[in-house]
TrEMBL record:
It comes from the Bacteria. Belongs to the SLC41A transporter family. Acts as a magnesium transporter. Signal peptide: none annotated. Homodimer. This is Magnesium transporter MgtE. The keyword Transmembrane applies. Residues 142-205 form the CBS domain. CDD domains: CBS_pair_Mg_transporter. It comes from Microbacterium soli. The chain crosses the membrane at residues 289-306, 312-329, 365-385, 391-413, 425-445. The gene is mgtE. It is a multi-pass membrane protein.
Amino acid sequence: MTPTQLQNVSEAADDIRRLIAQGDLPGASAALTPLGVPEVVELVDRLSIEDAAIVYRLLAKSRALEVFEALSPGTRGDLVQALRNVEIAALFAEIDPDDRVWLLDELPASVAPQLLRGLTRQERDLTSGMLGYPQDSIGRRMSPEFVTTHPRLTVAETMTRIRGALAHAETIYTLPVTDGGRRVVGVISLRDLLAASDDDLVADLMSQAHLAEVTEDAEAAARRATDYGLLALPIVDREQRLVGILTIDDAARILKQAESEDAARQGGVEPLRRSYLSTPIRRLVRSRVVWLLVLAVGATLTVQVLDAFQTTLAQLTVLALFVPLLIGTGGNTGNQAATTVTRSLALGEVTPRDLFRVLAREVRVGFFLGLLLGALGFVLAGLVYQWHIGAVIGLTLVAVCTVAASIGGIMPLAARAIRVDPAVFSNPFITTFVDATGLIIYFLIAKAVLGI
């Protein structure tokens, strides 16, 4: 969305808040009329959930469904809880099975049976089947509504299949090719079908298929789909039988959510389910307070280290002046390494099996960074204070940068190996750990060099 469009939405949000507060619903409805679906989605994200529910009720039915499908899962969940039961049931029946599962994952567990009962038997079976897969698997994010063809069918017969499935198929631009046992033997694009003759066989036109198993991690499958530029990725069970497809737009949505979660957790907060401006203050507090408490407890390690070396500090108080510099440099170095490796993990460039290769690289990177910073610290501290103080600062920077980069590099890999989100193990915990170890290194080097 362009800056001009965002400005228009911001102005419209202010107008609609005022009109709703005045009870002027016809005026609010008129203010919504010139906005397109993307702008209404942005508007809903900027409003409180109570005002968003009122705005949603003012939309025409067909437009309301388009808006609902474009909302984020978190916003959908909040909106559903703000609407009446009749409205919820109607919405739930209209959206696709994969969108229903996204929505149910955002709602209390007690709501699911009530919503499922309002579906037809066929739609209920499709949705319930997806809910049976693991929480973070691609089976919960795929679409079970797809069109297939067979290697021995002609182009004309395949086009007839496509026309008959236009009303319910998730996509028609890439078709899985299956044999008699529903096993995927290839894929064919609509472009190739349109370019071929009616009598050509699918077997002569199809290409090799990239597949994902239904229990595979959703983010990994989505990453592969986008890396290969696939419009649709067939999802299969253990016997390679087709059970669904992942479209490129759903893959992009999975990756967007995953990257938002990683970015939040690297900063020591829980990800927000809605946009920042429309998130209640109590939810913002709740998303941050747990991590602050955990990190505050972890920071007591730093206090314990300072207490253990208080005699050293008392003998040479100038050492205390450099504590913020050293622990800050160590924390920043570790965070840089962790961010780089976490990103490489997400892109599939490294795996936990590369732990020792990553460690070897980060030891060297940290050492060279330490040499550069240590040389500068040695000269500045030596000129301002004394050269033996400069030596302590220089040697400490070399050691701290080496340790911090090494820890920052291997911690995300260790997290992935034990099936924990690497982002959780990254910046906040690394900073706390490096603060404590950096101080220990600092005071040990000071005692050795200064003889105190």
